[in-house]
Design goal:
Elements (H helix, E strand, L loop, with lengths): L1 E5 L4 E7 L17 E5 L10 E6 L10 H20 L1 E6 L22 H11 L6 E3 L15 H11 L7 E6 L2 E5 L19 H13 L7 E5 L11 E2 L1 H5 L10 H13 L3 E6 L12 E2 L17 E4 L14 E8 L2 E8 L5 E12 L2 E6 L12 E2 L25 E3 L10 E3 L5 E5 L2 E5 L6 E6 L1 H4 L3 E6 L27 E6 L6 E4 L15 H22 L5 H5 L29
Parallel strand pairs: 4-5, 5-6, 8-9, 9-11, 11-13
Antiparallel strand pairs: 1-2, 1-7, 2-3, 4-14, 7-8, 10-18, 12-13, 14-15, 15-16, 16-17, 19-24, 20-21, 21-22, 22-23, 24-25, 25-26
Helix pairs in contact: 2-3
Length: 584
């Protein structure tokens, strides 16, 4: 088995290094060497058969180690059997530590991202007796009290796991690569810190790797990231990830968010892509998507030659649907199986999908079972609009424009409404669980929340033209002097949410970049400072005004910018209905 560190200019081979000499208290002691250091590429043989053990979000808590010990013991016989047949390795999809204090009586410091966290995870991952690779998730740089910068935190993460870079590349079998990319931003996140952000250097490295290992030469690549890419088609998602803009890799960057699926479509050497992030189980068919489907089942999904696979969690306390499962990949030159290792059933192995290579550019996937659901399941199964193709019309939710050039939702919107349409500039808006959501214009994957169900349910919606067609009026409004009829060729539109009974109408303004989904959740560092300011204000009100108890929480409110009106001057900052009289 060969381990490659590939950059655009060089390649270095890795083999195993020695175990930790000073494992953290309560940590696992590696039975065999599993760390990696530089060595000669030619020193190891390459087999055709291979096995990859894939573990999802670990969120390790040193107080709750039982499930990890059980999970490891269930994997060990699988590993022992796999090593007899060919190469075997382990991949962790990141989010290694619990995002809480593990010693709440002593400190409020979060465990995730700390040196202690990464050393505990390294000892655990190194105890399987096979080489392991790990990529960073959105919580792995959360050591906020210990490290001042993302770079300092990243260096400790890399050191703990003997990684020279955030990415990795291992040749697990002849011309079969395991490739991973990790999140490198937390404190410096532009929006939510829980967005999985792969930096430009890794993305450049990844694109060059695909160019240098084409399918025409027989190369096959399996990719591992914490969050899936936009366009994966995975639909077993968590609502909070969708509405907060942290569902997909580089979610808030329109270009980079779409870049991954474009690379998959272009480079058919990409055969599989594994991700975690959602803490949901593997019993649903929508946790695996295939690159193609029979024509009679629906439109061509346009996912290159890649199978996308979601991975669950090992510890019960981290599961969002009660499942505790990991993935197992068994492959050879003919194809591979995607399996579940069920930690609630004594490590039982279940084959979920069988993928067969038909040639270098195509593969066929078959599900080995239907959905396995339980009575308590309340997963957020995303409605995915379908634009159709040459053989299929758009789905029933598609709303065409009227002869007047408008979109009109004439019935009251409810939580089960499924409608979607194209804006004139190609952007896509639609309904999802009573919310107005923006979808990606290429993949029709959900991008984020535009209007919440609290504002939308029971209302109606219209999209109308708002631009100037034949005449150009020069505004004399203060701040708008000199504005003329320039601008893009797309016609200007207004999205209206209105209450037929009261006549109240809300104009849904787009963002400055033309998108509509609201980047509501901001960087965690910023939010922590805001929380501290509110607490300081509450203490001030209690001390100065004598308002205490639960009442003080209702008396202290916050205000934010930047936009309060369409006016050209800023004279008012009041929040209508909160710090100023309501306009309605």
């Amino acid at each position: 088995m060969r381990f490659l560190i590939l950059t655009p200019v060089f390649a270095t081979a890795w083999t195993a290094a020695g175990p930790r000499s000073d494992p953290a208290p309560g940590a696992f002691s590696p039975r065999t060497s599993a760390r990696s250091t530089s060595s000669s590429l030619a020193s190891s043989a390459v087999d055709e058969d291979y096995t990859v053990c894939v573990v999802g979000d670990l969120h390790m808590d040193p107080r709750k180690m039982e499930d990890y010990a059980i999970g490891r013991e269930q994997f060990l016989p699988i590993v022992a059997d796999a090593k007899k047949k060919g190469n075997c390795s382990l991949v962790s999809l990141g989010d290694l530590g619990e995002s809480k204090s593990v010693r709440p009586q002593e400190t409020s410091e979060l465990f995730a991202g700390t040196t202690e966290c990464h050393e505990l995870a390294a000892d655990f991952l190194g105890s399987f007796g096979i080489p392991y690779d790990v990529i960073g998730g959105n919580h792995d740089l959360e050591g906020l009290d210990e490290f001042a910068t993302d770079q300092e935190n990243l260096e400790v993460f890399l050191k703990a796991h003997n990684k020279p870079h955030a990415q990795f590349c291992r040749e697990i079998a002849d011309k079969t690569l395991l490739v991973g990319m990790g999140s490198t931003v937390f404190r410096d996140a532009k929006f939510t810190s829980h967005e999985v952000t792969v930096d430009d250097a890794q993305l450049y490295w990844f694109e060059n790797l695909l160019k240098e290992h084409p399918s025409s030469e027989g190369w096959r690549v399996m990719v591992f990231t914490h969050a899936p890419p936009n366009g994966s088609g995975l639909r077993v998602l968590q609502e909070n990830h969708v509405v907060n803009g942290c569902c997909w890799l580089n979610h808030s960057d329109e270009f980079k968010c779409r870049k991954y699926i474009e690379l998959v479509r272009e480079h058919r050497c990409v055969k599989a892509w594994f991700s975690g992030h959602f803490h949901l189980g593997q019993d649903y068919q929508d946790s695996i998507t295939f690159p193609s489907i029979p024509k009679e089942q629906g439109p061509y999904p346009n996912r290159g030659s890649c199978v996308f696979v979601q991975t669950s969690v090992m510890r019960g306390g981290t599961s969002r649907d009660g499942r505790q499962q990991s993935r197992l990949v068994r492959g050879n030159k003919e194809g591979f199986q995607v399996c579940t290792v069920d930690h609630q059933k004594d490590g039982e192995i279940r084959v979920d999908a069988t993928i067969t290579y038909t040639d270098d550019n195509h593969e066929v996937g078959v599900y080995n079972h239907g959905d396995i659901t339980a009575a308590q399941d309340e997963l957020f199964k995303v409605y995915a609009p379908s634009a159709g193709d040459d053989y299929h019309a758009p789905d029933a939710g598609y709303v065409p424009y009227t002869t007047e050039g408008a979109v009109k939702i004439l019935e009251d919107i409810h939580v089960d409404s499924k409608k979607w349409w194209y804006m004139s500039d190609g952007r896509v808006l639609g309904m999802l669980k009573g919310m107005l959501i923006e979808y990606d214009r290429s993949t029709l994957a959900p991008l984020g929340l535009v209007v919440g169900a609290d504002e939308l349910v029971g209302k109606k919606l219209a999209v109308i033209d708002s631009g100037l067609d034949d005449e150009c009026e020069i505004s004399d409004e203060e701040g708008m002097e000199g504005y003329d009829c320039g601008g893009p060729a797309n016609r200007e539109q207004a999205v209206l949410v209105y209450d037929e009974a009261t006549g109240t109408t809300t104009v849904v303004q787009p963002n400055e970049d033309g998108s509509y989904w609201r980047k509501i959740v901001r960087n965690k560092m910023v939010r922590m400072k805001e929380v501290r300011r509110v607490k300081a204000a509450q203490a001030f009100v209690t001390e100065t005004l004598g308002v205490g108890g639960d009442v003080v929480k209702d008396k202290v409110v916050s205000s934010w910018g930047p936009y309060m009106s369409t006016g050209g001057t800023a004279k008012r900052t009041g929040v209508a209905g909160l710090t100023a009289p309501s306009a309605l």
